[in-house]
From TrEMBL:
NCBIfam families: mycoS_dep_FDH. The keyword Oxidoreductase applies. It comes from Saccharothrix longispora. This is S-(Hydroxymethyl)mycothiol dehydrogenase. Belongs to the zinc-containing alcohol dehydrogenase family. Keywords: Metal-binding, Oxidoreductase, Zinc.
Amino acid sequence: MSKIVKAVLALRRGEPVALREIVVPDPGPGEATVRVLASGVCHTDLHYRDGVIGDAFPYLLGHEASGIVEQVGAGVDNVAPGDFVVLNWRAVCGRCRACRRGRAESCVDDYTASTPMTLTDGTPLQPALGIGAFAELTLVHAGQCTPVSPKADPAVVALLGCGVMSGLGAAMNTGGVATGDTVAVIGVGGVGCAAVAGAKLAGATTIIAVDLDERKLGHARALGATDVIDAVRTPDVVTAIRDLTDGLGADVVIDAAGTPETWKQAFYARALGGTFVLVARPDSSMRLEMPLLDTFLRNGTYRTSWYGDCLPSRDFDPLVGLHLQGRLPLDHFVTERIGLTDVEGAFTSMRAGDVLRSVVVFT
């Protein structure tokens, strides 16, 4: 039977979010309903609110979440009612060329629930990244549910659903950081700080954090940065990184800011033959001009990192296990715990750089 629950919606471009009642139907084949326990407030949600991603309003916001599976549809065998799960926005198909070659993290298909959630007047909702977790209950594709240890704090592990996994994976999966590597991370907001934590977990010996905000540099230090560069006081970031790496440049440089300026900084701060990872999503208006010869002479690898090249079924629960062992301080990313009515204020705090993550907690 369909359920009516409270949810946070973006009704029109650029307007403050609204708390409304929505209708969550029973799950269809291959689908599941999840009682949401916690959901992080991510920049992507703000992009939906502001119409940066699309204009298919109204949007049901929230996508970085954990919860309890309440009901499953026909044919679902990967989760069952009562399972504690982290929601992910990559449900792989298992059949495409990438999946058949054992590279499911590059699956080209996109599975989301086909049964729509609606307003009480029947207006269909567009759930953010196919999840829509700023709601007491949400409907997703069962493949978007990844079981993890129920011993974990829902507000902490929810962040693996997007930003924290993107940063961890940019270092560990995409960048391939290894024991003894030198790593530089440019831009240490939530994703960049997670890249710092991932580099430490992977065994990097020198981890350099770069940012314009001293508060963010403080977070990066707490998560494992051995050195920090205040880009306001030290405008020549490339030279500063080279000075900290015996003049060689870093083995792996991660651009978590995503501007033409930081792209160039990352490119030239990379050691000869090293790896450059772009994990931040640039604005569509941004343009880059580079000497083609430099791209040849610098050698090495350039990669973009999409969701940290993660495979949720492979990565989420082991990372939760490392957190429970005290080896991965995921709790540091939770700056504040808020209610559904506080999401608009959380966007304001995000813009001001006051938080790593605000997390909506359902009690």
